[in-house]
Amino acid sequence: MPAPGVILLVAVVLIVLALVYHLVMTIVALRQIVAALDETIAAVGEIIAKSGPVNDVVLTINAHLGAGVSALEGLLVKKAGMRDALGLVEGVYPGASAAGFRDFPDSTTTKAPRISEVYTRGVLTLARLGREAPIAAASPDGPAVRNATRSAKSAMDLYPDVRHTRPEKLPRSPVIGTDSPVQYPEGVL
Amino acid sequence: MTLYWIGSLVLLLVVFPIVVYLLNGVLVEARSIVPTVRHIAHVARAGSADLDAAPLLLTTQDQAIRTIENVAAYGGSLDVILDDARQGS
Question: To the nearest 5 percent, what fractions of chain A are helix, strand and coil?
Answer without folding.
Answer: 65, 0, 35
